[in-house]
Write a structure and sequence with these properties.
The complex is a heterodimer of chains A (647) and B (230). Chain A is α+β, with helices and mostly antiparallel strands. Chain A is built from 18 helices and 21 strands. Among the domains of chain A are: 89 residues, Immunoglobulin-like; 95 residues, Immunoglobulin-like (Sandwich), CATH 2.60.40.10; 25 residues. In chain A, 29% of the residues lie in helices and 19% in strands. In chain A, the strands form 6 sheets. In chain A, strands 3, 4, 6, 7 and 8 form a 5-stranded antiparallel beta sheet that branches. Chain B is flat and about 75 Å long. The mean pLDDT of chain B is 78. The chains are: A alpha+beta (647), B mainly alpha (230).
Chain lengths: 647, 230
Amino acid sequence: MKKPSEAVLLLLLLFFAPHAKGTRFSPPGKPALTRCRSPEKETFTCWWEPGPDGGLTTTYALYYRKENSEAVYECPDYHTAGENSCFFNKNDTSIWVNYNITVVATNTLGSTFSDPVDIDVVYIVKPNPPEKLTVTVMEDKGWPFLRVSWEPPHKADTRSGWITLIYELRVKLEGEDDWEMHLAGQQKTFNIFSLRSGGTYHVQVRCKPDHGFWSEWSSTSYIKVPDYFHREKSAWILIMVFTAFIFLILTWLLHMNSHSLKHCILPPVPGPKIRGFDEKLLKNGKSEDIFSALVVSGFPPTMSSNCEDLLVEYLEVYVPDEHELMLEEGKDLHDHCLKSEGSTSDNDSGRGSCDSHTLLMDKCGEAKEQGRQTEQEERPVETQRHQKEWNEDTLPYAHEDTVSPDMSSGRVKTWPSVFCPLPQYSSSPPNHTSSLEIAKQHCLSDSLFPPGSTSSYLTHPGHSTKETLGPSRWEFSLSNKQPRSLHPQMQTRQQLQARSDINLSNVGCEQAPVGLLPPTARPTEYVEVQRVNEEDMVLLKPVASGRGCGDGCPRLRQAEDYSKVKGVNSDHTLLLQREVMGEEAERCPCQDQETNGETDSCITSSTVTTTQKPPACNYTAAAVQDKMAPTVSGYVDTASIFTLPTY
Amino acid sequence: MSGTIRSVSVVWLLLLCLVLCRTLTGTGAAPICANAQAGCYAVSLANLFDRVVQHSARMHGISNDLHSEFEQYFLPSKNQVGRVGRNCHTSTILTPNGKENAQRMAREELTEVILKLLVAWRDPLWHFHRSMAHHHDFTNFSSDKALEMSDMVHELRKGVERVAEKMQTLGLMSDPVNSQVSPEALPPPDSGEWRRMKDYDLLYCFRRDSNKVKNYLKILKCRIVPEHGC
């Protein structure tokens, strides 16, 4: 264990031996002149930096040579200026003369010369700091300022003009780090303004020859500036008071004239005035009172008013022969009125009175005329129903208002062409025929067709022979004068008419002054055009009569496709074709009702299924079909169908 | 349009006249006389001295700038200064080298020395300026400085002569100064010597001589009119 440590020690010793031996003597290192300075341009001092001495005692010597002279002189004074310095006194100093100075370090082993330095005393002047710095606080128009004064360094001879010094001073507040520099030039006094009241200032000054080095800063001089606030403050206080006073006055003025100012700046917006509107009521919070005040009597009409009041008077239009007169609208109005009471499910407001089954039932005697009709409307005659309506309803007679029918899309109402017994005309006790005629006349006259309609179902009383039988129109001619010599259709019609007349006459309208309604009325079914298929065929569908229908009626009625419109002839009348769906038989039983007038039975019988066919109906049906297909134009009514086979 | 142009031109002319008149009257272009005579503008000795002193200080400043510029760009080694300093052509002129020497010298001698120096430097500086203009190494600023320097030497000499005259008139100096100061009496400068000087040496020498002049003038001033700035 010991051996390695010993070896290490030996190694270390060997390594450090040469160094441990200590100094290796060598000649001194090269000294260097650091600087030469002259404080007053009369003497100067040079300092040098000794180099490594090489282990031996080294002496330094300074030698100099003057300009234009080869004589070498040694430094006269090594001590005055301290160690490693050479001081040149006045006798040795020559201004404007170039000195070549060299320092030599010498030891026993040798000497080393420093690099020579050329100096001219004029350019190495660094004076002492200024002396006798005094700072005083002076006052200029109430504002304080510092007056700083100093003396040049005593050694520097500025009085003879030998040296010209320029001064610089610096000032700072106590506690701050930044000095404020002021170049004073050649003057020896200086004024500092912009002081802070109550602050303590530090002042220093230094000097420099015109071409030389700056001196060190002089010792600091402290000065405390007294407080000067009272003077300024009084003025500020006055200003503040004055301002506050003015402010108060302005506020008071504004307050006094606030209203007028408001009117100037923000003119009031005129508010709306509602007659009868009382704002106080609003404040009271009773809205009912307010709104009741607003409510003008008579507007809006309340629901309590009679429906009849809303009904518009029919226009009585006399249409010449070309036009078919139809009267439906009046009934329709009533229908609407009734409907409004929730009687029917049919919401087609375009119906005329004749169209509405309810209306027909109710207002058999209404003398109302419609203003408008559509060409496609077809009006099956349903005297029975109408009779019923007439029986039950007293109101319609008084009605004169009409509600113009409107076409609900896709549904064409078939209008009964007969509602002839009109109350207007019926003032006399029933003279059936005459009344019928009158009614017919009125009815016919009332019925309005669009001008283009050339349906010839204008049957005036006395125009029984008229060729009003348009192909698409079906009309009751209530004329009882119809000759039987007419062609089968006419005959049929006449028969129909006759029957209808009979029916009408038979209908007991107690109230109706016309008394045209026969008690037994064949159920006239409305044919409702349900749709128009792509072949431009109007598909008709019997409309379930409201009151005339029994229980099973609507069910069945809707199930069958009533008839097809074969086409529209030139008279703008629809050619109906009853679609044979095996349901003709239903109608058959109804033919019996012509005589008995039992609507119900007819209806009920009509609800008979297709399988049930009274034997006569087959023929009838066939006949009907044969007859109806090519020639029938106009309404296809159950009655007509039933009547056909009676030829 | 023409009317406005006319009016504008008239206004401009008036302004110009005003400015000229101000400059003419303000600066007082009347010649300076030592004695207050008709048509002359008499300047006090103190004022003259101030002017001269400032002039010399400015001259020295310019020379110093030129020298440092030269030293910075053309002579990286500082040690050549010593070598140069001994060849100034003005070294023949005896100048006091210390404050006591300068203060011991009479004002007439001092004035004479100043004038000698100034005279000695007139030609070399002029040539120096011309050589600087030809050398494109120098910047225009240096060339302008050289020209200004030569002009200032010339004018300073005149100023110093004026001061001397003033002093003589005031009885502060005796006459022999003038006679010695006259440029004809001075030996002509060595025509060849200063030509051998290089530019840098010339600048170095002039820098020192201008400093001497400045210092001597200041001493004179403070000796004769000490009340201002001494």
